[in-house]
Structures are given as C-alpha cells and as structure tokens.
Amino acid sequence: MTIHLRADRAVFRFSGPDAHKLLNDVVTGHMPTEPGTAAWWALLSPQGKVLAEGLAGWQEDALWVDVHQSVADDFFKRMKMYRLRANAVIDDLRETHRVGYGVEPAPQFVSHLDRLGAIEMGYRIIAPVEATADWVGDDRDYQAARIAAGIPQLGPDFGANEAFAHDLGMDILDGIDFEKGCYVGQEVVSRMKHRGTARRRPVVVSSTDAPAGTSVIAGGRDAGSVGRSVDGKAVAILRLDRITDPSAVTIADQPVSVTLPTWATYVFGESSVDE
C-alpha cells in the first residue's frame, strides 16, 4: 500500500486518566473513545479564532493528535497550560513520528479514517520515523483530494488567528460538538450558530495557480484570499455576499471559476442576518 508523507504535520499523544477530558474540555470537536474514525477539531482563542486544527484519533489507550508544524509550539504550550493538575501526559512526538496519508488503513501503524461529516478523506497514518523510509515523499495527492472536496486547512490556506471555525465549515462537517459543555471560544461559536453571523465560507476555485494569500476579487471588491493551489485548484474562504455573480470572479486580474463544495448548505450571494 502506498502512503504519502505529510511532512508539514506535527504529532502529539495525550494519555492518562484525564487525557480525554482535557482535550474534550478545550477544543471544539467531540473526542473519540475508541479506534476507527478520527475527529476534526480546532483550538480557538477566547475571541473564537482558530489557533490550531487537526484530527484526533483514539488508539493504544491514547489520543493521537496532529497539527500544522507552524503552530505546533504554540499548541503544545497552550495545552500544557490548560492541563493544570489534570492527570494527563502530553508527549511531543515531532522528532520520533511522522504523519502520512493513504487510501486504505495501515493496521501496523496508528491509523484512523479521516472523515469530516459525510466527506471521507482516506486515512491518517502515524508511524515512527524509521518505519517511513518507503513512504512517498510528498503529499500532493492528499492536498489535491482535500482541495477538490473544499476542505480548508490551517497552514496551506490560512494562518493562525485569521479565521473562525464557521469560516472553515466546521459547523457543517462535524468539527464542532454543539452538545457538549464549554470550551475555549465556545461563546463565539454558539453566537455565530444561533445568530447566523457566518459571512465567510469555503469555496473551490479552479483555473488558478496564484500564490496562497492572493486576493479574490468579486464585483470589484476583495472577497477573501485563495489558499494553496494544486493542479489549478485551490480552496478560498470568501465573503458569500460579495459573490453575486460567480462568473465574474478574478484573481490577479485573471478570470477563475468558483464552485461550492458538495457538502455546502450555503449559497453565493448569501448575507448574514446582521448585515
């Protein structure tokens, strides 16, 4: 089986009697308690902005979490602070383990189905560094698959403290547990849900090779910025209300095509209730 290395991901393992409660009380998603499927989650600032996001899967009596390398130090620091007196151990596995992507599970390693709502993204695979020598050394296949599905990701598409969880579609793709109690940033998430104040949403952009961060222009106005481009496609988090004519959108003065992800419950031209 072919496994593609996702070199920009950092691995942490949470173990101990209070490990599940620690994560479940801090991040947006509902933490799993059995092997199989990983949960999408985000660590938010008190103002509701995404500071880190990734998957968490249960295996070998621990939660295995991955985040983008650019926010790994901050994530580790914050989680140690939130741990306080909890009976939990947080292992930083950045030097010893790697994250990979495969279309099939790898039972010899830590392996979880990567499913966001109804969208299945293959399998997240975590293995010791010495076991990854025969992995394909790039994640282009994974990036192409997630872009086609309209899944934005911190690092390739936006930076820390730039987006709300709703901007990523986490409320639609099961990245937020609306039934559990409080977590960091929960008040903002709840307010956006009940007031319908999400103005920006993921959109798939085609016919572009513009660098990540390039502005997307609609009707002469900046509607947001494009993320990493692979094979001419990228995910952009855009102001829906500014996309009144999807055929008249440009990036760097070049026309592009914009489409909604198959899982979207929103439409172009939509305005939030507070506008």
From TrEMBL:
Residues 199-265 form the CAF17 C-terminal domain. InterPro entries: CAF17_C, TrmE/GcvT-like, YgfZ/GCV_T_CS, YgfZ/GcvT. One of its GO terms (biological process) is iron-sulfur cluster assembly. The keyword tRNA-binding does not apply. Keywords: Transit peptide. It comes from the Bacteria. NCBIfam families: ygfZ_signature. This is CAF17 C-terminal domain-containing protein.
